[in-house]
Fold this sequence. Notes:
The complex is a heterotrimer.
Chain A: E1 9-16, E2 20-27, E3 32-39, H1 44-59, E4 67-70, E5 82-83, H2 86-98, E6 102-107, E7 112-117, E8 123-128, H3 137-147, H4 154-160, H5 172-184, H6 189-211, E9 217-220, H7 227-237, E10 241-242, H8 250-262
Parallel strand pairs in A: 1-4, 4-5, 6-9, 9-10
Antiparallel strand pairs in A: 1-2, 2-3, 6-7, 7-8
Chain B: H1 3-30, H2 47-62, E1 70-73, H3 80-84, E2 88-90, H4 92-101, H5 105-114, H6 123-134, E3 147-151, H7 157-169, E4 173-176, H8 188-209, H9 215-237, H10 248-254, H11 256-260, H12 265-284, E5 294-299, H13 307-316, E6 319-324, H14 325-328, H15 342-351, H16 359-372, E7 377-383, H17 387-390, H18 393-404, E8 408-413, H19 423-437
Parallel strand pairs in B: 1-2, 1-3, 3-4, 5-6, 5-7, 7-8
Chain C: H1 10-19, E1 23-27, H2 34-39, E2 42-46, H3 56-59, H4 68-78, E3 87-92, H5 95-108, E4 114-118, H6 125-146, H7 152-174, H8 183-191, H9 198-210, E5 220-226, H10 233-240, E6 243-250, H11 266-275, H12 287-301, E7 305-311, H13 315-330, E8 335-340, H14 348-363
Parallel strand pairs in C: 1-2, 1-3, 3-4, 5-6, 5-7, 7-8
Helix pairs in contact in C: 6-11, 7-9, 12-13
Amino acid sequence: xxxxxxxxxxxxxxxxxxxxxxxxxxxxxxxxxxxxxxxxxxxxxxxxxxxxxxxxxxxxxxxxxxxxxxxxxxxxxxxxxxxxxxxxxxxxxxxxxxxxxxxxxxxxxxxxxxxxxxxxxxxxxxxxxxxxxxxxxxxxxxxxxxxxxxxxxxxxxxxxxxxxxxxxxxxxxxxxxxxxxxxxxxxxxxxxxxxxxxxxxxxxxxxxxxxxxxxxxxxxxxxxxxxxxxxxxxxxxxxxxxxxxxxxxxxxxxxxxxxxxxx
Amino acid sequence: xxxxxxxxxxxxxxxxxxxxxxxxxxxxxxxxxxxxxxxxxxxxxxxxxxxxxxxxxxxxxxxxxxxxxxxxxxxxxxxxxxxxxxxxxxxxxxxxxxxxxxxxxxxxxxxxxxxxxxxxxxxxxxxxxxxxxxxxxxxxxxxxxxxxxxxxxxxxxxxxxxxxxxxxxxxxxxxxxxxxxxxxxxxxxxxxxxxxxxxxxxxxxxxxxxxxxxxxxxxxxxxxxxxxxxxxxxxxxxxxxxxxxxxxxxxxxxxxxxxxxxxxxxxxxxxxxxxxxxxxxxxxxxxxxxxxxxxxxxxxxxxxxxxxxxxxxxxxxxxxxxxxxxxxxxxxxxxxxxxxxxxxxxxxxxxxxxxxxxxxxxxxxxxxxxxxxxxxxxxxxxxxxxxxxxxxxxxxxxxxxxxxxxxxxxxxxxxxxxxxxxxxxxxxxxxxxxxxxx
Amino acid sequence: xxxxxxxxxxxxxxxxxxxxxxxxxxxxxxxxxxxxxxxxxxxxxxxxxxxxxxxxxxxxxxxxxxxxxxxxxxxxxxxxxxxxxxxxxxxxxxxxxxxxxxxxxxxxxxxxxxxxxxxxxxxxxxxxxxxxxxxxxxxxxxxxxxxxxxxxxxxxxxxxxxxxxxxxxxxxxxxxxxxxxxxxxxxxxxxxxxxxxxxxxxxxxxxxxxxxxxxxxxxxxxxxxxxxxxxxxxxxxxxxxxxxxxxxxxxxxxxxxxxxxxxxxxxxxxxxxxxxxxxxxxxxxxxxxxxxxxxxxxxxxxxxxxxxxxxxxxxxxxxxxxxxxxxxxxxxxxxxxxxxxxxxxxxxxxxxxxxxxxxxxxxxxxxxxxxxxx
Lengths: 263, 438, 374
């Protein structure tokens, strides 16, 4: 990141997600000049206070700046001048960063969403996973724990495997027992991991199909760090996946941009 | 009628197709059994013929467009009317079951899911809508319907489903609405209502068919329909014999003609031949399960994608599944069909399928089967995709256990969607159930 | 804003009714002849779930893939919720309600007599005749249960009372945006029709309709489709997010704006009213007809989008959804689909979806009508 010119900050965006909390600062031209990311804490209000102290140190006093809050914890950000959903914020952030519309897939820890973004950065349609966790990061987390593979290594290990077993259950709970039984039958971890990723990605692809895929296919959210998800998403859709520079910050960035536009 | 289509139909369906199918049958008769013959009897000799008959039916469908009028119908519909008007009849439910058995259903259903059809909808409907949207099918090609013919005597789902088809195809939807029979007897005004709808359907169907309904032909079809249903019922009842010559898994495969070719003379011949083979098995002391120790009932639709697994799992443990409320449904109404009073008897036949009757009636049917077939237990497939068949099973199971003292298992699954079938859980439950049988 | 006369609660209504010696009929969704029950001195009190009951008693009889309206109704009954009622009426609205009616008759066997009846799925003369006879049969059962035999004149009087109430209900819907009521207050009022005697409802409705009109409420105008707006807090949440419900296609509300009948035969007249109601998948209405109805309502009210708010596992709703959404899209009306379970609190995700939808609707060009077509 470029060195920050003090007092160049014109707006802030905060995204309180289920897994991580993020804050982003933008300058008058909407450039992302500073950000901070950490796991979401139980006491969100205190975390937000701390975020604003960090912002003061990094970009100057935040009190007079417009601040948009987003994410499932947006209601807990007292200092927010506005609250906007993560759907609109993601679309705005990604559109600004990449410069075009398309289909954005955001796979989070608790929710996954697919957003059709129009040529002006507007949301044309969107879909979110239903109550079931099958298409979310939780699906991998639960089973990672069963397989004794650290979450951050899952994708690589899956890609390293040459074989793939088919995991038929899309239900997170049943998939877990399917995994247990595969292990009991002596199946190796690699092929199981590949199968799990495939099941997750197919579920996401089903969501993509309900809004319709308008290229390019863009991916954001914490799951982009998992190379297997990316690769399989490309395999299953036949589209190259485009990543923004800060895939985890798109919600907060979009929030900051919206703050800049409308206070 | 388009002459080129007629020529194509004649060549493919009457000349080339049958020759290829006969060759395939000849080859099939020489292939070794595909399931475990340590526990299961060798395949029925008729099996290749069943395959040929069913394949020929779908082959005729493939070339029907432009030559014959096509009707898509629900499995419990009064098909005799359509047969008498020379419609080619296509059963989307059977097509979906073929996809399920071939494990193609999920792939095809996901085409519908991608178009917005929820996974909570019946998996037959999803398979069918997916096939319509994508053209994917294991039977070559599905001819477009000239008419959709839905009868609510199996569920309301079919009407919702056919309303969707009506939009996609722009085809007229003829509804035969059959009021649900909550108590033992259907109300007279309900029977009258069904009869009136049957009569009112005639001019609509005649217009589409481009011909008049010949009452004599209808009577002939009715007679063939009755005869085939009677034979089917007889075949099922042969399973009262110990060891049972057929298992329900055999029945699930052999039932295709009674569902989709009811009213055809070939169907009567086919079941006469099957009955003969079943009798030969009985005479030779052959049981479908080699070491039949226990006999159980199956309730609800098959789990199409796990037929062999279930057959082998249970047979290995000496458990024969010999009777089912499902296969019985296509035989139990045979006595109601009266070719001399066709309209009235059709109305009664089509209002009384087990699925159009109360939960208590189903319990009585199961209880009667337990007694007549000498059963030791019951497996109730709780089918996520079929609410009308499944609601009531929890109480029915409870009563079977308490009042008849037979173990009964509620097996959670779905008839076509293997994604909701948890094999490990199912295996544990089945094993525990077998232990309870002793 | 709240100029609404006090609406008596369900409990108060029942107590007052019974104090006068009246009987009570618990009625399950959706369509049924109110006038027939009233002619027997039975006050129909509808059971749409209710939301937030302990689902355990029902779960002993119904699989988890049966919708929560049916599951909750059974749980409610089994935990004594319907103890004060004299008969239970179960219209055949769908396979799940069919199953419930059958379970009640064959296995659960509540203390009260259970009267299911079948609703035909067409609008042909044969359907009308059947429903007429079905109501006659229901009359016979009610007569046997109550020992009363209302005359044709009494039936007609009862029908006219219901027709008047339904006329006022329709008028409330038509003028909803200019009524001095918030969305939640509006729905409390119209949903009081689920348990108030028709004449009491009519008096309330008149009081509201007679109040001076106010300026149309501001907000993103949306149309609500589905079964029930539960939890009702949903409506406050929508208002807070800047939305205003300008029309609905809800099974409990907008799909029951029955026109008056024409026949001099009371049974046929009651049947006519139900069969001539707005399109409804549970009555077999073609999807194209439903779409025309939705687009027409949106055009009349200026709705900018449609929220499909469904109860999970509801087949009648789910089958029509893809084609309805596609058709609406083609008419310039975006839509969003939300599924809920009656036992869950309003979830953050549900609210986020609605809020995101409202945000989206605002950025999209308005549909032709709202832009002032002609």
